[in-house]
Amino acid sequence: MNEVCRIKDGRCYIELKIIPGASKNEFLDVRGGRLRVRVAAAPEHGKANAALIAAFAKRLNLPKTSVFIASGEKSPLKTLSLPKEAFESALEFVV
Questions:
Q1: Burial 37-55, CB ≥16 within 10 A → b, else e
Q2: What pLDDT, on the 0 to 100 scale, is given for residue 41?
Q3: Max alpha carbon distance in the chain (Å)?
Q4: Cys-Cys crosslink for 36: which of 28, 72, 77, 85, Cβ 3.0 to 4.6 Å?
Q5: What number is the average pLDDT over the span 12-22?
Q6: Read out DSSP for 26-89?
Q7: What CATH code is assigned to 5-94?
Q8: What is the DSSP-derived secondary structure letter of residue 3?
Q9: Residue 5's beta-bridge partner residues?
Q10: What distance in Å separates the CA atoms of residue 56 and residue 27, rounded to the nearest whole number?
Q11: Does residue 91 or residue 34 have the better pLDDT?
């Protein structure tokens, strides 16, 4: 299975490297076993995390409440958790 995207306990987990403060939200490439994502929000008061969740929810057509940060809330290295049903769609990011 892909090292960036995996299924565990009925959830899909994606390893991320977040680059906050960008000019726009953008899904980049995979480096060092993590999907790199730029978010336009600043890394203060949870704004970048909220922008990250909103970007994934929109791209995968999921409710924001089903996407959450499983680890790394205050770090640029994060693990995002999605419903297991989103696994196939999430793989499109890392192929």
A1: bbbebebeeeebbebbbeb
A2: 94
A3: 36
A4: 28
A5: 94
A6: EEEEEETTEEEEE-SS-SSTTHHHHHHHHHHHHHHT--GGG-EEEE-TTSSEEEEEEEGGGHHH
A7: 3.30.1200.10
A8: S
A9: 14
A10: 9
A11: 34
As a whole number of angstroms, the distance between CA 66 and CA 63 comes to 6
CA–CA distance, 37 with 28 (Å, rounded to integer):
6
C-alpha radius of gyration, the chain, whole number: 12
Which amino acid type is present at position 27?
F
pLDDT tens, 35-75?
999 999 999 999 999 999 999 999 888 999 999 999 999 99
Which pair of structure tokens corresponds to residue 11?
């959830």
pLDDT over threshold 80, residue 32:
yes
Distance, in Å, from the CA atom of 2 to the CA atom of 25, rounded to the nearest integer, reads 24
